[in-house]
């Protein structure tokens, strides 16, 4: 009497386990393909560095730091105040905040 539901449950669990195994294998295969494609992309640069519009980031930073070091004036900059946010309501004119209105 109790054997029939247990056998049905066991067969259902076995079927679910097989489907899960197949799904796991498919995901592993897909992950492997993605990793291979990523390795191939990283290993081969289609366009040589000479044809890029900008030099490599590290090189750009070095060049900019050299330019900064050559500047005579590296301080006394004007501090810019934040721009007040103007909110617009559909159908009405834009309102300026009262604290910045003149």
Features:
102 residues; mainly alpha; elongated
- Rounded to an integer in angstroms, the radius of gyration calculated over CA atoms is 33 Å
CA distance, first residue to last residue: 90 Å
Category by helix and strand content: mainly alpha
Oligomer: single chain
Shape: elongated
Overall mean pLDDT = 78
Set down the secondary structure blueprint.
Elements: H1 3-43, H2 57-70
Describe the fold and architecture.
There is one protein chain. This protein is mainly α. It has a domain at 1-44. Helix content is 54%, strand content 0%. It contains two helices and no strands. The longest helix has 41 residues, at 3-43. It is elongated and about 95 Å long. The mean pLDDT is 78.
Condensed summary:
This protein is mostly helical and 102 residues long.
């Amino acid at each position: 009497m109790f054997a029939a539901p247990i056998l049905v449950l066991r067969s259902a669990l076995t079927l679910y386990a097989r489907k899960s195994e197949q799904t796991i294998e498919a995901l592993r295969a897909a992950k492997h393909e993605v990793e291979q494609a990523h390795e191939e992309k990283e290993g081969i640069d289609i366009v040589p560095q000479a044809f890029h519009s900008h030099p490599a980031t590290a090189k750009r930073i070095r060049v900019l730091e050299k330019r900064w070091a050559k500047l005579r004036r590296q301080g006394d900059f004007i501090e810019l105040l934040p721009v007040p946010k103007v909110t617009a309501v559909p159908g009405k004119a834009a309102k300026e905040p009262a604290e910045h209105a003149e």
